[in-house]
Design a protein that fits this description.
Number of helices: 17
Mean pLDDT: 76
Helix content: 25-40%
Strand order of the largest sheet: 2-1-3-7-9
Strand content: 5-15%
Low-confidence stretches: 328-332, 334-400
Shape: globular
Distance between the termini: 15 Å
Bound molecules: iron/sulfur cluster, FE3-S4 cluster
Structural class: alpha/beta
Length: 400
């Protein structure tokens, strides 16, 4: 490593240890499909940055996106976020309120034109001039249109901001749309859909933008390919049961209790792109994602699936032949998200015989992902390792 480690750690870093920070950057690089050496570069770039100002605008939302990001059970994500950025305006978290908060927003935008990151959660109501969501007496639609063109980057967090989410579900009484639709496609942006999305996908995207100074490679729905390139179904630990035709038919039946495939209970994994099986949630170890806990994926991150298709409806298998082989299109390639869909080996094999509470190890997940030519599993390792060490008092007290 060419720089001394201490030079790679932001001076302002608070509760996160140097060791955790460097490890996080290395694994974040891997999760984004970057060479491992990029971890040190990300750490160095972030360490030398002035904390970038962030304006966080909320439209029609439930605060779930903020809660999942900043109130995670594991302190690393929220601490890293709050240490790495200067959150100049956030309606829920800002200390000032009312006129003072609005003045802080305007001041930050004025002083940081072209340098701040605009984060949007919630959908934007368009009906009746946008009167159904107002901040300081002004429709959020107007505030968004004034603010977005001045930002360095726009990141939509959650399905509401990315494609309309719950508020846009039929009958959509407020005319709710995504940030992109509200802006008429005039501003380039990154979508991190999910309801709520995985905080690591948001954090990795912020690190990428800060380090590389450009947007990560996006699919045709504006999502970072490093997180949304694979179908849930491709990495699901129940996939072996799907292939073998073993399905739960009712909640609580024998198949459900034995961990069989949830397809016939309406699981939308075969038509939803996200890294949930690899990234997991809450840093509590294996199976900590919807399907892992016995709940079918309802396609929360997929436009046209989540909040659109009835929950019990069986998922389309449009991306596969009945034998599980990708469907060939006229040009000989299946194009999903602007890329070529290929069936890749799962990042872990179904823990059919594993005793309760013992799924695939983090290392096995990471190695399998690497062998498959993708690094998505490394993000899961980030979550699992950080979570494990935080819960291991011995690891906490070790010196770097
Ligand atoms: Fe809430 Fe989901 Fe919308 Fe986020 S995407 S604001 S969690 S409804
Ligand atoms: Fe997993 Fe759902 Fe696919 Fe079954 S249908 S393998 S539960 S993602
Ligand atoms: Fe959402 Fe399905 Fe993942 S419901 S959180 S995309 S498993």
């Amino acid at each position: 490593m060419q720089d001394h480690e201490s030079d790679l750690v932001p001076k302002y870093l608070g509760l996160v240890s140097r060791r955790d920070f460097l490890k996080f950057c290395t694994l974040a690089a891997a999760s984004m499909g970057l060479p491992l050496g990029m971890g040190a570069k990300i750490a160095a770039a972030v360490a030398n940055l002035k904390r970038p100002p962030v304006i966080w605008l909320s439209g029609q939302e439930c605060t779930g996106c903020t809660e999942s990001l900043l109130r995670s059970t594991h302190p690393t994500v929220e601490t890293l976020i709050l240490d790495l950025i200067s959150l100049d305006y956030h309606e829920t978290l800002s200390t000032p309120s009312g006129d003072l908060a609005e003045a802080a927003r305007k001041k930050s935008i004025e002083e940081n034109k072209g340098k701040f990151i605009l984060v949007v959660d919630g959908s934007i109501p368009m009906k009746d001039g946008g009167i159904y969501c107002q901040i300081g007496g002004k429709p959020v639609l107007e505030i968004l249109r004034e603010t977005a063109p001045l930002a360095m980057a726009v990141i939509n967090i959650g399905s509401c901001a990315s494609w309309g989410g719950i508020p846009s579900a039929t009958p959509n009484p407020t005319g709710a749309v995504s940030t992109a639709e509200a802006l008429g496609g005039k501003v380039t942006m990154i979508n991190i859909p999910g309801c709520p999305p995985n905080p690591y996908n948001f954090l990795s995207t912020v690190l990428y933008v800060l380090t590389v100074k450009k947007l990560p490679e996006l699919d045709d729905k504006g999502r970072p390919k490093f997180a949304y390139r694979r179908l849930i179904h491709e990495g699901c630990e129940r996939r072996a049961h799907f292939d073998a035709g073993r399905f739960a038919l009712k909640f609580g039946d024998e198949g459900h209790l034995r961990g069989w495939c949830l397809y016939k209970l309406g699981c939308k994994g075969p038509e939803t792109f996200n890294n949930c099986p690899e990234q997991l949630f809450g840093d509590v170890g294996p199976r900590s994602w919807p399907v892992g806990t016995g709940c079918p994926c309802f396609g929360c991150s997929e436009k046209g699936v989540g909040f659109t298709k009835p929950i019990p409806e069986q998922a389309s298998l449009q991306y596969f032949t009945p034998g599980g082989v990708p469907l060939e299109k006229a040009d000989g390639k299946v194009r999903v998200g602007g890329g070529e869909l290929r069936l890749t080996p799962p990042t872990a094999f179904a823990p059919i015989e594993a005793p309760e509470g013992h799924g695939a190890s983090a290392v096995a997940v990471g190695i399998a992902a690497g062998l498959a030519g993708v690094a998505v599993g490394a993000a899961a390792v980030t979550a699992l390792k950080l979570g494990k060490e935080k819960s291991d008092p011995g690891a906490e007290t070790k010196k770097d």
